[in-house]
Design brief:
The chain has 205 residues and is mainly beta. It has one domain. Helices cover 8% and strands 49% of the residues. The chain contains 3 helices and 11 strands, in the order βαββββββββββαα. The strands form 2 sheets. Strands 1, 2, 3, 4, 5, 6, 7, 10 and 11 form a 9-stranded antiparallel beta sheet that branches. It has a two-stranded antiparallel sheet with strand order 8-9. The radius of gyration is 19 Å and the shape is elongated. It starts with 17 loop residues before the first strand and ends with a helix.
């Protein structure tokens, strides 16, 4: 099985980003990092040398323009869009190798839509993504844990898609653990019936 990225999330992978730096204190910014970091953090992080390694913090905001997300049984393509803010932390050991990454992600102004009918299903989402690297510095050795919720509820219909709980994905991409309803994960694992209610609410079958 290929590695499942962020299996609890409702949204597709982001294709564009606008980096926004998170403010840091003067004492944090003053402690320069002189060693190279593996892998190097993206430019929106600010890093601080500590007694036993390096800690990097940053934040950024993504805007996801409408793009195809999944397909209903009648072939209708449902689109996804929204705005996501990420607050991220990276932990490097004394040798400058990454050992853990934590991302808190918050979605707003998000919706699924059917461009053929104009129907929309707004939603909000909050997740925490934690990658623990079995081999410091090597992302391919990471075990990823995702917790949070991103349910879709439509007035008059109730919940049409449920995503809440916790998943753990092994370095080889296999799903080690899951708890709570994970409709969108189930869809991408082959159970397409889980989106039927959402498709119907958006005017598709």
């Amino acid at each position: 099985m290929s590695r499942i990225r962020h299996p609890v999330l409702l949204t597709a992978l982001l294709t564009g980003a606008l980096g926004v730096l998170m403010p840091v204190s003067a004492s944090f910014a003053a402690q320069q990092v002189t060693q190279s970091l593996t892998p190097p953090p993206p430019s929106f992080y600010t890093c601080q040398a500590t007694g036993n390694g390096t800690i990097c913090h940053g934040s950024r905001t993504f805007t996801l323009d409408p793009q195809p997300d999944f397909v209903c049984g009648d072939g209708t393509v449902i689109y996804d869009q929204g705005i996501a803010r990420q607050v991220a932390t990276r932990y490097y050991d004394a040798d400058g190798n990454l050992t853990q990454r934590v991302i808190h992600e918050f979605w707003s102004d998000a919706q699924k839509s059917n461009p053929l009918t104009g129907a929309t299903a707004p939603y909000s989402q909050a997740t925490t993504i934690t990658d623990v690297l079995g081999v410091p510095g090597d992302f391919s050795s990471a075990t990823e844990t995702v917790t949070g919720q991103g349910n879709i509820t439509i007035p008059g219909r109730g919940a049409v898609l449920l995503n809440a709980g916790r998943t753990v994905t092994a370095p080889d991409g296999s799903l080690d653990f899951r708890a709570g309803p994970q409709d969108f994960l189930d869809y991408f694992l082959g159970n397409t019936d889980v989106v039927n209610e959402l498709c119907a609410a958006l005017g598709a079958n």
